Amino acid sequence: MPAVYNFDPHVISLLQDKIQLIKSDEGAIYLVGPIKLPINLNGETAQFKWYCWLHCDEVTEDFERIIAKLSSVNLAEFQQSSILVHGDFHNADHALIRFHSICHTGDIFGSKRCDCGYQLRQSLKHIAEHGHGALFYLANHEGRGIGLFSKALAYILQENGYDTVDANLQLGFADDARNYGDAIKALKALRTKPVTLITNNPRKLDALRKAGLDVEGRVQLWGDVSEYNEKYLKTKIERAGHLNEDEGCCDND
Question: Domain residues for 37?
Answer without folding.
Answer: 9-141+178-238
